[in-house]
């Protein structure tokens, strides 16, 4: 474990609430005071130089937060002045409500990742939409923000779900590369799996994973070396491929306007 994440991570790992991709979220954890968590030591973060001219844009996305580690994630993103999209569950937003405003205030995008993280295809359309709507209500109550993005848990979606979320004013966002950080045991694994995006690509990662935070500077360095910069998630004009079986989506990364 790199030193900049600090010894606090070892303690935090005992209380992490992220989800493995094929498992439902665990029960709601005991709320903690995020401000009391030791922050990332910025002096250990490598200085990285963005490309002089961006050959394209890719987007970082973090699912299943907010968590105890969201402040650390925000600190690293802030250090490199990189935008990201956070696909939060309503359940986690209730636990870490202050982090919702904080993430928005830092200029990041927020997305609906349902209330309780069910497999939307397994629960049926009615219950699926009820769970999505519950997250929307929670998010609006906490932030007065509309959370214009949506990501189905496990990427499990259907034409009906997609049409329903679009009718609710949200853009369904899958991913072009999966970092597989939920099953990684080393930083190197996260970095290797995170490679492969080209212009417009969207990377799936998870909030609450110490390895992901450690990997982030190396992932940024990799894409800078490709001439790519980091942008926000926007609607694409056409259907684009994802690495979620043969699914497509209409989302891509684009330059974040100031
Ligand atoms: Zn998830």
TrEMBL record:
Residues 1-20 form the signal peptide. GO terms for cellular component: membrane. InterPro entries: Glyco_hydro/deAcase_b/a-brl, NODB_dom, Polysacc_deacetylase_ArnD. Residues 56-231 form the NodB homology domain. It holds the Pfam family Polysacc_deac_1. The keyword Signal applies. This is NodB homology domain-containing protein.
């Amino acid at each position: 474990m790199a030193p900049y994440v600090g010894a606090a991570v070892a303690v935090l790992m005992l209380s992490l609430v992220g989800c493995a991709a094929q498992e439902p979220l665990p029960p709601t954890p005991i709320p903690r005071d995020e401000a009391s968590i030791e922050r990332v030591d910025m002096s250990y973060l490598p200085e990285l130089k963005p490309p002089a001219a961006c050959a394209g844009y890719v987007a970082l996305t973090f699912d299943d937060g907010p968590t105890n580690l969201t402040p650390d994630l925000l600190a690293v993103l802030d250090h490199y002045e990189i935008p990201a999209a956070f696909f939060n569950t309503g359940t986690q937003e209730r636990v870490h409500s202050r982090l919702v405003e904080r993430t928005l205030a830092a200029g990041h995008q927020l997305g609906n990742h349902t209330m309780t993280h069910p497999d939307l295809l397994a629960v049926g359309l009615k219950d699926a939409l009820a769970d999505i709507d519950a997250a929307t209500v929670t998010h609006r109550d906490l932030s007065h923000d509309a959370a214009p993005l949506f990501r189905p848990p496990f990427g499990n979606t259907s034409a009906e779900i997609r049409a329903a979320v679009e009718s609710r004013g949200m853009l369904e966002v899958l991913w072009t590369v999966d970092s597989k950080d939920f099953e990684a045991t080393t930083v190197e694994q996260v970095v290797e799996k995170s490679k492969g995006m080209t212009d417009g690509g969207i990377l799936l990662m998870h909030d609450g994973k110490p390895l992901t935070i450690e990997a982030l500077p190396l992932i940024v360095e990799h894409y800078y070396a490709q001439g790519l910069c980091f942008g926000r998630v926007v609607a694409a004009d056409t259907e684009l491929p994802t690495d979620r079986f043969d699914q497509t989506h209409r989302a891509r990364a684009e330059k974040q306007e100031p």
